[in-house]
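YM 10:42: TLP18.3, Psb32 and MOLO-1 founding protein of phosphatase sequence, as discussed on the call
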Amino acid sequence: MAEKLFSSADKKAIVDAIKSAEVSTSGEIQVHIESRCKGDVLDRAVVVFDKLKMYQTQDRNGVLFYLAVEDKKFAILGDSGINEAVPDDFWEKIKENMVSRFKAGEFTQGLIEGINEAGTQLGAHFPYQGDSDINELPDEISFGS
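YM 10:58: structure's back
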């Protein structure tokens, strides 16, 4: 179900947004989508964050966008490096903007806007490091059951 929510063009647009957001930052953004989330969405996002080894970035500046589409739950989880740099309500503000898109059925656009905003903040706090900067995590969307 999770993969079917997004067309091939939607998936490409999301991956393109990730790549674009990462151009100006050493930060890393990943999107994980699954059908169901039993229990607390933040707890599940932490499990996925660990499973995807997002904590292994040099500056601890990974950001996970986690969606459980059938349960209509989502979370944004930043690693310790980015969380120390942004205001306490930063992720909530991005989530609020995304919710309005999601309620309108605009899942792809909501994700893209959230990714763009996260990329802007990552770029402000973790600028691109030139030739020494490598893409530490895959840009492709991961899907769960």
